[in-house]
Design a protein that fits this description.
Elements (H helix, E strand, L loop, with lengths): L8 E9 L9 E9 L5 H11 L19 E4 L2 E4 L13 E4 L6 E3 L2 E2 L2 H9 L9 H4 L9 H5 L12 H5 L1 H5 L6 H11 L7 H8 L13 H5 L6 H12 L4
Parallel strand pairs: 1-5
Antiparallel strand pairs: 1-2, 3-4, 3-5, 6-7
Helix pairs in contact: 2-7, 7-8, 7-10
The structure holds iron/sulfur cluster.
Iron/sulfur cluster (SF4) binds next to α5 and α7.
């Protein structure tokens, strides 16, 4: 019986290491990992961790691009490690580094406090004064057209890749960031929500929506098809009273 052709190869994986709390210098650890056509960057990191160096710091959970935990710089671009196959990259050494614009906890693990604070600040839930709906007495129906206005933004998994790609995040430590601004649009565009005025007020400050200069890099890296740059532009229309 003819054998099944194998795509097995060896990939050099370079992992950036650092531990700011311990004050150590930054360095890179290199590993040679067996990979197949379907091997993801996360699989390779875990192989390096399991068989090379247990101390490699990496955060992950679902392994199916849903939890948003394994964002990192892969060959210089923000990507989800579980959603990036090594065979899709350019070939050669695969270099993984912690996401930019986030504080490093250790190795590939970064702190999400700023992102979650920003997300929480914009009140990420339906604000409604219709008490019978909140009590579950009746449905609050929408047409497919009304759903279409915000549904792509509801797919955000809070992975932070957009914030990592954003040039304004790099220069303004208090900027709200594309993730939370896109979520403001998600609720403003939802016909069930009545919190538009209070949300627009929250982002109308010197570190809010007007700091976005439409570089568009956030939308290029989103693994879930969200277009934060477009959401922010549409939101500016609401701010200026055009919508
Ligand atoms: S908008 Fe996209 S890239 Fe940004 S946090 Fe949400 S899922 Fe991640």
């Amino acid at each position: 019986m003819a054998g099944v052709p194998s795509s097995k190869t060896t990939t050099r994986l370079k992992i950036k290491r650092s531990n700011p709390a311990a004050g150590g210098a930054e360095s890179y650890s290199e590993f040679d990992v067996d990979t197949e056509a379907w091997t993801t960057v996360l699989d390779a990191i875990l192989a390096a961790k399991n068989y090379g160096d247990h101390s490699v710091g990496v955060r992950y959970s679902c392994r199916q691009a849903t939890c948003g935990s394994c964002g990192m710089m892969i060959n210089g671009k923000p990507r989800l490690a579980c959603f990036t196959k090594i065979s899709e990259l350019d070939g050669g050494t695969v270099t993984v580094e912690p996401m930019k614009n986030f504080p490093i906890v250790r190795d590939l693990v970064v702190g999400f406090d700023r992102l979650f604070r920003s997300h929480h600040r914009i009140k990420p839930y339906i604000i409604s004064d219709e008490a019978d709906i909140e009590e579950g007495v009746r449905e609050n129906r929408q047409t497919p057209e009304e759903l279409e206005k915000y549904i792509q933004f509801a797919g955000c998994i809070k992975c932070g890749l957009c914030n990592s790609a954003c040039p304004t995040m790099a220069t303004d430590s208090q900027f709200a960031g594309p993730q939370s601004l896109a979520q403001v649009y998600r609720y403003v565009a939802d016909t069930r929500d009545k919190g538009k005025d209070e949300r627009l007020k929250i982002i109308d400050d010197s570190h809010g929506i007007w700091r976005c200069h439409y570089a568009g890099s956030c939308s290029k890296v989103c693994p879930k098809g969200v277009d934060p740059a477009m959401g922010i532009q549409l939101l500016k229309g609401h701010m200026l009273g055009f919508r």
